[in-house]
């Protein structure tokens, strides 16, 4: 099946190098409106979006997010916060004494924030504006709270940078995804066997026209560079700091 | 600004009553492909999608998700699991002994799963297929793990049901969202004051053509029905069960 929207979803890829062209106020408004129009639990919009316009704060963020200078150069930078604070404040404003938010409220708000963020990505893409998620926004909880003035019960869910892709970025092939069998189960969860995993990764490499794919070499390098990296360990340490307020 | 994609994002609303028309195999494939093509951290696709086809399991899920029978009647029902298990299994298959996943891995995978889910929503919408998120999938961790055979480090991030909207559902107005000022801050987080919250909710009510909106009455009823409900407390109890495996 094909239509303009399916094609746009398939064509969208992350952009990390931007031209100097700004995102206009109208474009920014359309991107935010896309986010607001996303599905949201009980129509609560359990997020707050920080629009990071201050160059010094951008610099700090770039540093706190595993030192990625392209964050500073993006035309627009939005932090999507899972906000478990606004509604309880409204309850208090109406004279109630609500319970403290718990881990269920947090996970629901993280989902809400990410669902809104992905609509922002799709809206931007429709305007020729590229984007990139920065998962590293979860790191360095203490410094991040300081920099963004985050109170308890307000947690970064994801961060997005936006800008127009350079020609080199436009030409970059989109990385291939796994085949359905690798990520979809019917009814109940089942572990992939070692043999199946080898096949899943080989299929993905073939779909990406990679020749001479070596599972062991690739996985060992990936594990070292990502899962066992300093930033990945920091992400879990930092996430535990945020979680503590909910437990 | 307007284009076909922005219009589709703005028009999309949740659908809870479906016609009997099935979702075809081609439509299902297009919805899943939309999800796969979503941005994903390090191209890892940190999710597993369960396609719930078994009527008995659908019945169980409808029951576990706060007794919502329309879950049984949907043409397609997908559970998006944050999967912190598949990549460590691949690391093991390559002879490594990876660390246990931590809370950072979980939050990153929840984001990944919800970002993919929202692309599935947008893909479905482009085919005239409505959808509804079921946040309640976070509840009843023990029974849910049993029903879906979830091992440790695999956590429901969200659930989606899909189907064609009835005419009544098509005619239903989409609930109004908050204005930008209510959910966007420049640079740093700031609490809304009680007065601002009253205004935020009044503006939203006016945008939804609600007359005689009474903040205190609305908020008190909403708090009782949602935040202080049994299902909301259950969600946090249950989420804590899932989190325990990561702490």
Automatic annotation (TrEMBL), chains A, B:
Similarity section: Belongs to the flavin oxidoreductase frp family.
Protein name per UniProt: Nitroreductase family protein
Pfam families: Nitroreductase
Top-level taxon of the source organism: Bacteria
InterPro entries in UniProt: Flavin_OxRdtase_Frp (IPR016446), Nitroreductase (IPR029479), Nitroreductase-like (IPR000415)
All copies of domain Nitroreductase, residue ranges: 10-164
GO terms for MF: oxidoreductase activity
Record keywords, A-Z: Flavoprotein, FMN, Oxidoreductase
């Amino acid at each position: 099946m094909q239509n303009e929207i399916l094609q746009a979803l398939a064509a969208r890829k992350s952009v990390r190098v931007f031209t100097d062209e700004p995102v206009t106020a109208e474009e920014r408004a359309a991107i935010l409106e896309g986010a607001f129009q996303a599905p949201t639990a009980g129509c609560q919009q359990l997020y707050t979006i920080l629009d990071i316009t201050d160059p010094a704060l951008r610099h700090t963020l770039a540093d706190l997010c595993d030192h990625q200078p392209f964050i500073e150069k993006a035309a627009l930078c939005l932090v999507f916060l899972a906000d478990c604070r606004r509604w309880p404040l409204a309850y208090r404003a109406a004279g109630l004494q609500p319970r403290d938010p718990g881990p269920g409220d947090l996970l629901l708000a993280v989902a809400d924030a990410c669902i809104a963020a992905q609509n922002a990505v799709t809206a931007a893409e429709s305007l020729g504006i590229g984007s990139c998620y920065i998962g590293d926004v979860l790191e360095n909880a203490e410094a991040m709270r300081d920099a963004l003035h985050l109170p308890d019960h307000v947690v970064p869910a994801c961060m997005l940078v936006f800008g127009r892709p350079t020609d080199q970025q436009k030409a970059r092939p989109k990385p291939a995804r796994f085949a359905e069998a690798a990520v979809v189960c019917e009814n109940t969860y089942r572990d992939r066997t070692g043999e199946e995993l080898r096949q899943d990764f080989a299929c993905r490499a073939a779909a990406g026209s990679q020749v001479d794919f070596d599972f062991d070499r690739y996985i060992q390098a990936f594990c070292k560079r990502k899962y066992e990296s300093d930033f990945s360990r920091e992400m879990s340490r930092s996430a535990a700091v945020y979680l503590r307020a909910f437990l």
